[in-house]
Here is the input.
Amino acid sequence: MSRPDLSLVFPVFDEEDNIGQLLEQVLEIAPRLALDFEIVIVDDGSRDASAEVVEAIRNGEPRIRLLRHESNRGYGAALRAGLREARGKLVFFSDADLQFDLDELSTLLHHADEFDIVAGYRQPRRDPWGRRLLAAGWGWLVGRLFDLHVRDIDCAFKVFRRHVIEAIPIESVGAFVNTEILIRARQKNFRIHQVPVTHRRRRFGRQSGANPSGILRALLELASPYRELRQPVALVAVQRGES
Here is the structure.
């Protein structure tokens, strides 16, 4: 089976007010970005009509593929399923909450020939101050533990070359997934380029990543694989003669 030029992956959980508009935007923009593309939607056990909205649109659009989890497994599990299912030479992922301008995907793709990963960072970030404070603390902690310095680790607007997806084992089921991917990518010396992207406040639905259970899960997922993820970084530093 031939690979499409581009896969666009979107984890979805209770986004019935957003997913229809998102798909309309993707179907308008993607043909300008790639000769051949696919859209991979992973419905992570939504309790609303998200999957039904996708089904109605994809009836006349074979480039839309829908994966459904019977129950909510977590953001990381949904993203992992989508990335594994994606067949594209380039793989893009974002959230389904309309907080990003998909037209700016063209900016990321412009750098995809030169870099293994092109990661957006929200500039400016439109989240409430408490969420921004948590993000700053998380970025500082990850930087201290893993010597990974990325401006916006959890920004869900990234493009990967196919070999990156195939080389990185993803184990996280929660919000740690973005951090895990970048740490593992750094271990393998993949080249990461960062570009600013526009960010908007969510209009419909509720954010769940910064709730207490989500934060606790991320911390547990950070602590659990620490030895495995940290050791290769330390070895690389020794080989380079860094302190």
Remarks:
- DSSP finds nine helices and seven strands in the chain.
- The longest strand covers residues 37-44.
- The first helix runs from residue 19 to 33.
- Residues 9 and 83 are 7 Å apart (CA to CA).
